[in-house]
């Protein structure tokens, strides 16, 4: 017997409808590409998204056609997002920091029929447009600009298109399993692959991350997603913001520390989301500017390991609770979030703090296990000690990559993340490394993450990466690539001595290489592949 309850499909359009109806006057503030600010609200965002849905309809697109966006976090991008997915098309967010060849590959692989782009990407789009045979409409997310038309005669302008359309549009009743958006993995470890989210997976993910033990969004918050909308949908923040009716501050293209501190202070941001490199820049800028970041109560850190020293600075200096979360493109992205439990109140402050370093535990809706091999079904103990291949399943986890026929899962239906981790009995996850970044020294594993966390805590060190270098005797040994602060006189010996008593002697790196810059990928992660190519043979040279 079925239950006698209403059935309503879980649709992305219902999020924007809710925000329009119950939180219409809540602010959505956005920095434009020229640095000016736009003050809007959920009612206005909803109206413009309906206008843009009418524009898309006028193009004669078919259900599930792909519409790409190459844009920063701003109000037009947000409106277009809801218009695209809400009207049954697929919003394909693209990372503009990719190489032009990768952009071309991704746009063609996805068969995008429309490309929306921010004004500051016009040269990029002009340089690749002749290689995009499937794209019928190029839309600049801005007001009309004759200078752009000179370089790009066929371009259309978002604001002009909106002016031609009514804000009356009835969101279609779609199947909840229909695809809503498409995001390619950032390719840190291999060729980009498309992950195709559904309306259902997105709405369920939004519920999960809004909860107090998760990213903890409420209608009282002013949320600033610094993580770009092209990086796994800004970790779902713009969807959850509409669901709970919080205020949004969209930082546009200026993601340097000073710009972010100013936004936080001016608009009283209470919760912000970003990768560790963003927070590193913000902490330096807050110190320089003498800001206390008064309004910031929480910040979410993910995408790469958050160094414990950073969590401590946010807590001790700024009274801001850092929420360390783990996820990936294939997991929508949230797979675990670090929040404590009631029983932890009995622990000492030091013990509580130690617990907060880990990547946290899974919210309802996903399950984690570690296994002895990528393909294996042999679960390893959840004892907080045993290290294994991290696997996941749940409502918002990829099943099959876009355009591929066979699924990406183990035989018993789990997705192998490529991460190496421990899990404890409560499900607290500690990422030890990516399987490709682990250092295998004389048959023992050394975690590059652990070595990086120690070095980054040194006050004269700005950024680090530990990689495996080939070694004749031990196969691989760790070497440390470090960027020191401008005034630092630190030497290789000083930095190696800093490891003494913090880690077993045999795990201390063999060498330190000081560099001016550490190569970062488009989503703010260290490109270890490049570093391995450059320095991987250095221990063979002497
Ligand atoms: P790519 O795999 O191309 O870098 P993703 O952005 O999907 O693209 O990256 C996911 C990976 O990032 C995870 O598999 C994991 O290795 C790493 N990661 C994400 N969050 C964390 C975290 N909190 N701590 C450590 N590593 C993390």
Automatic annotation (TrEMBL):
InterPro entries in the record: AMP-bd_C, AMP-bd_C_sf, AMP-binding_CS, AMP-dep_synth/lig_dom, ANL_N_sf
GO MF terms, alphabetically ordered: ligase activity
GO process terms (BP): fatty acid metabolic process
Entry keyword annotation includes rRNA-binding: no
Family statement drawn from the similarity comment of this UniProt entry: Belongs to the ATP-dependent AMP-binding enzyme family.
One Pfam family this sequence matches: AMP-binding
Keyword Methyltransferase on entry: no
SUPFAM superfamilies the record matches: Acetyl-CoA synthetase-like
Span of domain AMP-binding enzyme C-terminal: 450-525
Biological source species: Acinetobacter celticus
Phylogenetic placement of the source organism: Bacteria, Pseudomonadati, Pseudomonadota, Gammaproteobacteria, Moraxellales
AMP-dependent synthetase/ligase domain mapped to chain residues: 17-402
Keywords from the named record: Fatty acid metabolism, Ligase, Lipid metabolism
Protein name: Long-chain fatty acid--CoA ligase
């Amino acid at each position: 017997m079925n239950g006698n309850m209403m059935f309503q499909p879980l649709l992305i359009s219902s999020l924007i409808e809710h925000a329009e109806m119950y939180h219409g006057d809540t602010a959505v503030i956005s920095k434009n590409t020229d640095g000016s600010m736009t003050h809007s609200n959920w009612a206005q965002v909803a109206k413009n998204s309906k206008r843009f849905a009418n524009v898309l309809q006028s193009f004669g697109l078919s259900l599930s056609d792909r519409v790409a966006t190459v844009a920063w976090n701003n109000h037009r991008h947000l409106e277009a997002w809801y218009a695209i997915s809400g009207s049954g098309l697929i919003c394909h967010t693209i990372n503009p920091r990719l190489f032009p060849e990768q952009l071309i590959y991704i746009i063609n692989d996805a068969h995008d029929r429309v490309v929306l782009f921010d004004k500051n990407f016009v040269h990029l789009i002009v340089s690749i447009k002749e290689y995009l045979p499937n794209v019928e409409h190029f839309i600049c997310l801005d007001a009309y600009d004759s200078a752009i038309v000179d370089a790009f005669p066929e371009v259309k302008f978002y604001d002009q298109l909106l002016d031609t359309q009514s804000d009356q549009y009835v969101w279609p009743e779609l199947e909840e399993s229909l695809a809503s958006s498409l995001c390619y993995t950032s390719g840190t470890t291999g060729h980009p692959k498309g992950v195709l989210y559904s309306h259902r997976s997105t709405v369920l993910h939004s519920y999960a991350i809004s909860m107090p033990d998760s990213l903890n969004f409420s209608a009282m918050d002013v949320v600033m997603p610094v993580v770009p909308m092209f990086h796994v949908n800004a970790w779902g923040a713009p969807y959850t913001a509409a669901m709970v009716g919080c205020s949004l501050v969209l930082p546009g293209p200026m993601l340097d520390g000073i710009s972010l501190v100013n936004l936080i202070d001016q608009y009283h941001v209470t919760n912000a989301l970003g990768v560790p490199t963003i927070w590193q820049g913000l902490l330096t800028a807050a110190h320089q500017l003498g800001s206390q970041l008064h309004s910031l109560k929480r910040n979410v850190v993910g995408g790469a390991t958050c160094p414990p020293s950073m969590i401590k600075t946010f807590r001790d200096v700024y009274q801001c609770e850092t929420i360390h979360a783990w996820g990936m493109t294939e997991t929508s992205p949230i797979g675990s979030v670090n929040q404590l439990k009631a029983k932890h109140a009995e622990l000492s402050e030091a013990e509580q703090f130690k617990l907060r370093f880990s990547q946290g535990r899974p919210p309802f809706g996903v399950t984690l296990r570690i296994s002895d091999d990528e393909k294996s079904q042999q679960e390893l103990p959840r004892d907080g000690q045993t290290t294994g291949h991290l696997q996941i399943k749940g409502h918002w986890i990829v099943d099959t990559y876009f355009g591929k026929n066979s699924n990406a899962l183990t035989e018993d239906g789990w997705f192998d993340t490529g991460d190496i981790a421990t899990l404890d009995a409560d499900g607290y996850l500690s990422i030890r490394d990516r399987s490709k970044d682990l250092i295998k020294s004389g048959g023992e594993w050394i975690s590059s993450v652990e070595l990086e966390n120690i070095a980054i805590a040194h006050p004269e060190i700005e950024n680090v990466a530990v990689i495996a270098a080939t070694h004749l005797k031990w196969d691989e040994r760790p070497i440390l690539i470090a960027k020191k602060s401008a005034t630092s006189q630190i030497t290789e010996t000083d930095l190696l001595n800093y490891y003494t008593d913090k880690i077993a002697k045999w795990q201390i790196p063999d060498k330190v290489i000081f560099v001016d810059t550490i190569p970062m990928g488009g989503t703010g992660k260290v490109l270890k592949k490049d570093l391995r190519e450059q320095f991987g043979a250095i221990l063979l040279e002497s």
